[in-house]
# Entry
Amino acid sequence: MHVRNFYGETLDETLKQIKRELGPDAIILKTKTNKGLIGQLKKKKFEITAAISEKNYGNKNIVDTILNDNQKESLYKGPSSNIAKTIDGYGNMAVNRSVKTIEKSDSKKSDLDQFLSGGTEKKISIPSEVATSKVEDISGLESKILELQKKIAGLEDKIPDEMFQFRNNLRGLDIEESYIQNLIKKASFELSFDDLETHDVIFEFALREMIKEIKTEMPKFSEVNLEKEGVITLMISEASSGQTSMIEKLASLKNNSMIIKNSVSKNDKPMAGEVFDYTVCQASGITNIVSECRKGLEEERPIFIDYKVEAHELNDSKKVIEALKRLFPNFEVLVNLSSIHAEAYNRKILTRYKDFMDGITIAHLDLCLSFGSLFNLAINFPDIPFKFFGTGELIPDDIEAASPERILAGLFKFKN
# Structure
């Protein structure tokens, strides 16, 4: 920005000086009139501070170097329109720019009655072309949003009807949404479009894939080569889950078994041990449990530990399990869950003991209302196999080896 001070005896003389030196686009920053005593001391009566941009000042200098003094004098005396033709861009800014005038009202309202009964204000009408273009833009955005919603929903318009119906059926079985989406993607990749329109083909494909997700194993005490060495099976749970009945059913499968309990149960059945050939003993604390285990191993008896955890013994139970695993090589930990408990609770128990457990037993399978929750446990804990299912109250009939078919039969309501 180029800034200078200009002095003159009259205002017109000073403005002409600014116009000649800086051009018509000069911006007046400050105007000062020297009057009275100050005016007598100053050389000139008017003092104006003006400025111009460096770019415009450079353009003016180019014109000034070409013209002589007479030509410059005649140029700057002329109107701004002539200067603008000579110097590109000049004459339309600062003090020379055009100003829109506001039309005065034709008539003034003299009193309150006239004001209230006066005419309405003029309304600014929006051109119809602009309004139409805005509506078209909005409708275009809405259509794009609808397309994105379809894509986010899984491209339902591209899924065949049978596949779409089967996906909804799986959702109604409480199976996790992530697994359903992966299953649908795999089916869409491996099956032809005609197969995707056939319900039986889709159903068989889903059964083959789902049966792979459920891991089952036989327990250690069923292995023939370990019978002479002796196997210790510890069953653990934290709430009323049918653990005592389950441990008695397992003990009845082996002859001359021993059940060690760390707490006294109100539902003990002394006659059951005599009928099914097993004995029950009480042992509280790690020392007593280890002592009873060694006695049973010396007698070559299968040992089952009914270990119930109280709320204040969560940390102690882990120490007991670690100690028994170090002392006895053929040691197995089974976590007993109830199928009537919530999936979130069963998942919490498995998360707490997943570092120590070797398998899962499920009680009350005959009362299960959601086999989808059991399937979700299988896919969320793929390294922990199911061992046994308890299917009733009778000993030893209401127990069966775990199998994927049993869970899928309950899931899809297959009849035996």
User: Anything to note?
Assistant: The first helix runs from residue 11 to 21. Residues 89-107 have pLDDT under 50 and may be disordered. DSSP finds 18 helices and eleven strands in the chain. The chain has three domains: 2-96, 151-213, 220-411.
